[in-house]
Amino acid sequence: MLKLENINAYYGDLQALWGISLDVNEGELVALVGPNGAGKTTTLKVIAGLLAPAAGLVEFRGQDLLKKSVHQIVSLGISQVPEGGRIFPGMTVLENLELGAFVPEARKAKDQTLQSVYKSYPILEERSDQLAGTLSGGERQMLAIGRALMSKPRLLVLDEPSFGLAPILVDQMFVMITEINKQGVTVLLVEQNVRAALEVAHRSYVIENGEIVGEGTGVDLLSFESIRSAYLG
Q1: Containing structural domain, residue 50
Q2: Phi/psi at 125 (nearest 5 deg)?
Q3: Do 99 and 70 lie in a common domain?
Q4: Which of 120, 186, 188, 205 falls 20 to 30 Å from 38 in CA-CA distance?
């Protein structure tokens, strides 16, 4: 479904990505894990069309994303939830959700999709008329994911969904992500919480200093001494 091949990317004169290659197959939950500053978010910016790479290939369902604008990429079926969710605090929960359905195809099914989101996350229906800025951290993250699902994505990209959440909410977040994947949405999960990400992902990539340094199933990577000592203590 998604293919990155030999991606090099820069911020000015600073090279941030060095030959990044990864793929996500339809129906998978794939994790990209690594420490702060490793290049995870930069990789997502390349996928979203927010940062043009200096070299490499990015394809989604056979289409060259490097030739697409940001809104065209969303229309193809890629929806991202940025770190921290970034909801619109001065708008209601319902208004935030409705903004997610701006893609023409999603707009046609807006009411049906909204009911599906409410069924999965009843708290959002209870808070539908409440200003989003008054929600708790966990509820905001839930709203951000619900808004992304309103676009009826083929691929849901999550950037640090557990960031800033209390431990009990982190567990709930990963259960939620697993359920989204089971419902047929392909997921690319970017996380610093390495153990939790590896435990739920079908396959994972480890990125350090802008390079992929390991890949495999979660079970495989959890058994690597280098991974355990570097990320799991």
Answers
A1: 1-77+154-167+175-233
A2: -70, -40
A3: no
A4: 186
